[in-house]
Amino acid sequence: MTECTRCGERCELFLCWNCGKAIRRLLVGQKVSRRKATEAQGEEPGIIWYLDRLMESAYLQTRMGSSSVRTAPDSMPLLPDSRASKLRHKIHAELTSWVKQITEGCRIRFLPLDSVEPDFIGPLRPGWRRIPADYTATSADMARWLAHNLLAIMSEENAAELYDELVALTRKAHKAIDRPELQLFGECSKSMGESDEGVPLACGVKLYAEKGETVVACPRCRSTYGVDELRDDMRARARDQPMTGADVLRMMKLAGEAPASATFYKVLGRVAPRSYLHADGQRNQTWTPGCKKLYAYDDVMAKVNEGENSTHRRRERRRASA
Questions:
Q1: Record's superkingdom (predicted)?
Q2: Residue 186: its pLDDT value, please?
């Protein structure tokens, strides 16, 4: 018997069974059972789940805007924040290093779980796959393989280092994908010439700024914009077309003018819609069951300000009579 190199518990390998299971959870996650009736039943995510979320953070950009100016064709793949992409590469490198250490030290061949060699002859089991000859190991495949070969990891003298590295990477991944302070303020409008049809092209990269920042720079062309300038532009674009109540509230939040959600929807009930959006996409002045009410941004703002002014006057009268 010896001591676990991470927690000091008595064990036969370099890690105790509890620390080994913790590594497996960090790699592939686990389902969390409900211990009490008041507790939710869900999943504790592993590094595999974070890899998917980092992919979304790195490469997916929601297109928005109704301008007649198009965005440059090569603006879509640009990363709004390269930290997510760099972190994915770091996770892949760490997993690759450990797969290499296990395969060389324990003489275990790497083969993705539930898969067979390209030259395998015979029918495959349900859910299994035949890997192609030019297969390159993915991060998810390596994480699952390491979790499956947990005893081999626990037999490595530096197994505690994998635990510490997975904990650090998980924290960084959580921070990278959970950034509520980051706000979208619009798109870069710098001219990028014209298309073959003569339509003006704009840079079009999404512009994000953290709460409290006054200036934001385009990560593609390095053009700089004042946050107040972008907010004014959003307000101007919001005035050009009627929106649903949810869209009005979203624009007000981006512009820093939103009241509490409960207050907003209470005020919205006193605003007359400008038009109605029907299930077939048509917009007109006729209400039909199931259609959506469309409001003007300025109409809603006027009612919000009217309510705030009324509240302020009531407070002043109370102070005067006190």
A1: Bacteria
A2: 75
Number of neighbouring beta carbons within 10 Å of residue 216? 21
* Integer Cα distance of 189 and 321 in angstroms: 54
Report d(CA 248, CA 254) in Å as an integer: 10
CA distance 281 to 269: 23
Q: For 159-200, what is each residue's pLDDT tens digit?
A: 999 999 999 999 888 887 765 556 777 778 888 888 788 888
In degrees and rounded to multiples of 5, residue 185 shows phi and psi of: -115, 5
Contacts of 9 (CB under 8 A, 6+ apart): 3, 16, 18, 19
Of the candidates 255, 269, 321, 261, the one whose C-alpha atom is nearest the C-alpha of residue 300 is 269
114 torsion bin: left (phi>0), alpha (psi -120 to 50), beta (else): left
Three-state SS string over 9-69 comes to: CEECCCCCHHHHHHHHHHHHCEEECCCCCCCCCEEECCHHHHHHHHHHHHHCCCCCCCCCC
What residues does each domain of the chain span?
2-32+43-61+81-119+130-177, 181-239, 241-321
pTM summary value: 0.52
d(CA 224, CA 204): 13
pLDDT over threshold 90, residue 51: no
Distance, in Å, from the CA atom of 4 to the CA atom of 222, rounded to the nearest integer, reads 51
The burial of 160, by beta-carbon neighbours within 10 Å (0-12 exposed, 13-18 middle, 19 or more buried), is given as middle
161 closest CA partner among 19, 54, 11, 28: 19
* The predicted structure's pLDDT at residue 31: 58
